Amino acid sequence: MKKILVLAIVAGVMWIGSAEVCAVNYYIDATGGNDSWNGNYPSYEGGVNGPWKTIAKVNDYAENPRFSDGDAICLKRGEVWRNDETIGYDTSTIYWGTLNGLTIQDYGTGAKPWIDGSSQAALCFHGYDKLSNLVIRNIDVSGLGWIGAPETANIYVRNVTNITIDNIYADGHKGTPTEFVVKGPIKIGPNLGDLVIKNCEIFNIMQRDTLYRGPVNQYTITINNYHVSAHAKITGSVKIINNTVHDVVGDILQPANVRPPGGFLIADNVFYHFGENAIDLKSCSNVIIENNEIYRDFGGSDKYCEDYWPNHLFNFGMIVTHAVSDGPTCENIIIRNNYIHSAGNFRTFEIGGANNLQIYDNYFRDVGRIELNTNRCSVHNNIWDVTHDPVCDDFIYCSLGTTSCSASTLSLIAPSSYMRSCKIFNNTFYIKSNTVNYGMYYRKYSTSIDNEIFNNIFYFDRGDTNSYSLYFKIRDGSSDIPDVHNNLYFNPSGTNRIYWDGTIYDSTEQTAWQDAGHPGGIFADPIFVDPENSSFHLQSNSPMIDTGTFLTTITSNTASSQTSFTVVDAGCFYDGWGIPGEMGNAVKTQNGQTTTVQTIDYDTNTITVNPAIDIVNNEGIALNYEGSAPDVGASEFTGIACLPIDQTGWELLYVDSEETLPEGNEDGAAVNSFDGDPCTIWHTEWPENPPHPHEIQIDLGGFYDICGFRQLPRQSGGSNGTIKDYEFYVSNNPDDWSAAVASGTFVSDQTEKTVSFDRVLGRYVRLRALSEINDGPWTSMAELNVLAVRPDTDINDDGKVNIEDFAVLVCWWDDANACSSSDWCGGADFNMSGTVDMFDLAYFAENWLRRTD
What would the pLDDT profile of 423-432 be if each residue is shown by its tens digit? Predict the structure, then answer.
């Protein structure tokens, strides 16, 4: 007994000795603090118990005795630090030592704590690869006119592992003398792990004078700005999300050599009024640019057209890609679901070399051209709505230093000298601008090969004789001509349709155009619903409904239940390129089979899918469509990207079995399957081992237009419980599940499985596991993600969900006799039940004031 007691005491002492030191909050109050106090209290409590006063004290403490893992430096709201030191820099860079977890944040009430950048930089962290998990949040770093070290940015971080910068406010003119040229607010040097910059508001990054001029090399958010491959970011992930940045004289976002395996996400940002590029990608890869609003919108003001940044705008764009001097070409770039507008005649995209490019489901309004210099690209399901002439037309195509310019020929897509294996399909071009001469200007060089243009609508309303929907010119005698077919060309104000290397086709020459090697070319009105109000859906009598061609045909032999097959050309399809969380295209065969692309071998044109489908030799296959064949134009697809729903707010409704042994020895709780952690799992009970089927039911917390799900099997501890056969349900009522919306057999491995199906409106989901890959009685799963399209509650298609849409809903309220399948109460009957009721109101409320454009 004594021996047991002694062992217990020794074990307890060892446990206490090895316990981590608790993290501590250190408080800084510029007015009520004192550097002789201990900094451990937000206000003075007597003795030495109170907040510090200066940033200089923070730096001194960082070097001796040093902060500990998880500590937080808290600056009081409403306070200002001026003519003080930079956090992390006095006369040289502060060495923080080995530190896992440090937070710089606010406390108290009032305005964000302001480190006045007119007198010193705000924060400088050189981690020397020993500092990790740095968080900087809720700080004002306005006033970017300071002079001197450490770096030309108010927040500078390098050689730190895992960085989060959240809710930073930076006004470059606040407190900055007129003659000062402001610095960039955020600069991230070489770093490891994950980088997140989110919820920041940054503006006025330009010299503060009457002409608003400044050098164009001022960048707002710079990532890894070392243009050598030795400093490439090739670890972790990067997320630039939900930031608002405007009035910037140079680039807004300039990443260089950022190629993280975990993906580079630029999403939900608003970027506007910039002098160079909104996004300038230099030798970057695995980039997803989605759900952003980007615009110049000069508004007719002389400030922006003549005085703001003259001679800077002649050669820049919204999104630009190119390689740094010794870096690789950009690759794996996805640009989707963005609202890009008010660009005038300045370039929308300047793709200066890229491998693997996807541009789809974007809405372009009053923009300039897209230049493509790329290998393997797909531009599809976009809408160009160009009805207004540019405001700053005197600065179109100016040479640097000149004062006279002209609004010369402009096209919306201009394939450049090097474009290979690119597909431009199912786009709608609606053009009424007097400065746009061509819908597409295709200059054919010998280096441009294997390109295809099809299923597009070119609605080109120009009456002059020198304008064409499509202008094609061979520049160097090349014989490799792009495959142009199944497009519609219409001009209600003129007769010209196409210029093809010297031959002009007018409105009477449809047959001649088809006979010249362009089958399916139509010269007719597409019959849009209301193009003047940006509704480019096709009316029921449109000649373009179900008349598009399939993207390719199946070359494998006819067979049942296939997960792999070959096609004539796989170039139109996309498999996610291995970017975590990305899914391949949802596709549909000519015989109505639907599935999701998992992998593509472009060399052999082999596509792997899940779930398995029945294939028919020589039958067509396309992106998911409605009806008997794809439509021509973008109306059938635009805005229906199938993306994961945020798991926050999900609740477990029911699970038939879960393993939850006491005292934390085993955690197989069902909620682990939607906690965002692939290392935790849901596992059914053992050793009781109840038999199949097993199921989990989840309340998503709101109504969604659900189009699929992803199921990640357990990633460690073996394969027991990995689901083989399954059923998936969606419902508006957890007591009524009706029929399964998807069922099938998963591939027998531990990779994430993606299942797509026709869109179903609902709030509750149910996954039933019918069997296990080893025929065992268990079920296990690491993560379940439910996929949905963006909400379609913008009833009047004006890009916003607001009171005008609500007025439409009220007009149709509870009128059981009004709804029909032709328009479902003007689009207000969201679940197509035949009446506008409480369900529709609840679904509408979920998306109130969201932007949909």
Answer: 999 999 998 8
Whole-number Å distance between alpha carbons of 446 and 611: 41
Spell out where 361-467 has E strands: 363-365, 370-380, 383-386, 411-425, 428-431, 438-444, 452-454, 457-460
Q: Report DSSP state, residue 34.
A: -
Alpha-carbon distance 645 to 787, whole Å?
Answer: 6
| CA dihedral sign of residues 171, 175, 180, 186 | negative
Write the CA distances from 757 to 592, 610, 612, 709, 742, integer angstroms: 12, 11, 13, 9, 7
Instruction: Write down the pTM of the prediction.
Output: 0.76
Residue by residue, DSSP assigns 738-803 as: -S-SEEEE--SSSS-EEEEEEEEEEEEEEEEE--BTTS-S--EESEEEEEEEPP---TT-SSB-SH
Q: Torsion angle, CA of 545/548/551/553, rounded to 10 degrees?
A: 110
Q: What is the tens place of the pLDDT at every residue in 313-353?
A: 444 678 999 888 777 889 999 999 898 888 755 678 878 77
User: pLDDT-derived band of residue 819, with 50, 70 and 90 as boundaries?
Assistant: low
Q: Which residue has the tokens 């693997």?
A: 356
Q: Which amino acid is at 181?
A: V
The predicted-structure confidence for 720-773, as pLDDT tens digits, reads as follows 999 999 999 999 999 999 999 999 999 888 878 888 787 788 899 999 999 999
In sequence order, which residues have a C-beta less than 8 Å from that of residue 161 and are 6 or more positions away? Answer: 127, 129, 131, 132, 133, 191, 192, 193
For residue 253, give every residue at least 6 positions away whose Cβ sits within 8 Å of its Cβ, in sequence order, or none. Answer: 219, 220, 221, 223, 240, 245, 266, 271, 278, 279, 280
d(CA 617, CA 213): 63
Q: Which helix (H) or strand (E) holds 319?
A: strand 317-322
